[in-house]
Amino acid sequence: MSLTLRTISREQHLAYIQSLPSASHCQVPAWADVKSEWRAENLGWFDDRTGEMVGAGLVLYRQLPKVKRYLAYLPEGPVINWYAPNLEEWLKPMLAHLKQQGAFSVKMGPPVVIRRWDAAAIKKGIQDQDVKRLRDVEATHIEPRAFEVADRLRRMGWQQGEDGGAGFGDVQPRYVYQVPLEGRSLEDVHKGFNQLWRRNIKKADKAGVQVVQGNMANPYDLDEWQRLYEITAERDRFRPRPKAYFQRMWNVLNAEDPNRMRLYFAEHEGERISAATMLIVGGHVWYSYGASANHKREVRPSNAMQWRMLQDAYALGAGVYDLRGISDSLDENDHLFGLIQFKVGTGGQAAEYLGEWDFPLNKLLHKALDIYMSRR
């Protein structure tokens, strides 16, 4: 297949994404409006023979201070045929185009899964004292074609980003936890939960926990979300995003598709004690952000909320419910261990993506950025 790459309109880009079974929420055109501090461009790949669009990519450009040179970033993209034998013919024109646009370095995240571990394999790894990381556990499924993709990228001069040892060194997570829904009944999904999860769902129901949908266009719901989110940030020691970020995210994503983003609250005795956001692109549904109060944890609002979100994802016809990032640490003393422990309880599977890859178009500026980022 002979290919041509060119800038496309947002409408063309969205139409292409809508024609697919699913794509990353980081590759829909409206994601550019969420990341408003970056300049954005929509790219399309076309089959020269038929003129048909066969791939798309959202590029975010971040300018270097004081010079008109940019880092070009394609989060969890581009959306192309990654297993194509002529992968070079897809990526070479992209690099040439981005260089022309003033990019000194390109970062991308191929949406290619390399390994999967089911819950039983992970539990076994946790129980083994000699196992400290997910990568030390024998994978339940390996995708040989993913290794070929990695080899092709290396031969082209792409460099694999460091994962910082925990799978969080990339901008987007390398390790995620997913609950497959395709070909399963809701009863199967519920049976897949471990005993603790099933017990906690029952406990929440018995305590009268109600899960309701909210709306960030409503100032009260937005304030309640932000209140719970900031409590969580303080407890888990991370820097919270401002309220305006979530307001913008809600407005722009739902303007593109009225069912792109949802907000959920778990309520107990009239008080909102837990909240979460959900993103939907085709058959892929993500649990995106979570928040909870410091009290009333004994009524298990988070389990109740996840179960409701899973049921809603199922009702939408989703093939996968994605709980997003996990660390690859299986060490009980690691501060991120609780995250994988909670998600393993859903009986789903951990997936390792190829991670993010860099192509230095200007080695000197790329190196300078590396040094700057490591000192932050």
Automatic annotation (TrEMBL):
Keyword annotations for this protein, in alphabetical order, are: Acyltransferase, Cell shape, Cell wall biogenesis/degradation, Peptidoglycan synthesis, Transferase
PROSITE patterns listed in its UniProt record = FEMABX
Task: Note whether Acyltransferase occurs among the keywords.
Answer: yes
Cited InterPro entries: Acyl_CoA_acyltransferase, FEMABX, PG_Glycine_Bridge_Synth
Q: Which Pfam families has this protein been placed in?
A: FemAB
Q: Which Gene3D superfamilies match?
A: 3.40.630.30
Q: Which family does it belong to?
A: Belongs to the FemABX family.
What is the recorded name of this protein?
Peptidoglycan bridge formation glycyltransferase FemX
Q: Which organism is it from?
A: Streptomyces albiaxialis
